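This section describes the prediction task in plain terms. A model, or a person checking by hand, is given the sequence of a single protein chain and must write out its three-dimensional structure as a string of tokens. No templates, partner chains or ligands are provided. The sample shown here is typical of the held-out split.
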Amino acid sequence: MKAHEPIKYAIDMSSQVCSGTLADLSDAELFHRPAPACNHINWQLGHLIVAEHQMIAKEFPNALPPLPAGFAEKYTKETAKLDDPKAFATKAQLLEVHHKQRAAALAALDKTTDAELDRKLEGWAPTVGALFQAGCAAHWMMHVGQWSVVRRQLGRSPLF
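The expected answer:
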């Protein structure tokens, strides 16, 4: 087994869980806050896309397409408190940007050698392999746990 295979499996599993959790939620439901100080799902999706882009692009310049103009500015710590849908992208737009970014990140992972995955990094991810696993899988799974609470508050049954 090549080292990138379990990383890709974790990313694919995360994608399946996230897609399933979001599938039947409307644009309006993505703005539901489970508690007053919690971030809504729309903001979390944008945050995840921006974070993944920044992490992967830092180590693999030019591997990812640029984010749409103004996209990152919609998903900052300061905008997390906003509830106006006009200040954010729609669900369809978020998913389109995510799919383009993720396809490019997976292409970068596929081109990465085992030795490159072991390359040490400074910061929160100790290696390139850990960067892919954390940025494209674990970070998303952490947030999907929050989305499950929203789903239950909206009357949806558990999915997994």
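For orientation: The two ends are 28 Å apart (CA to CA).
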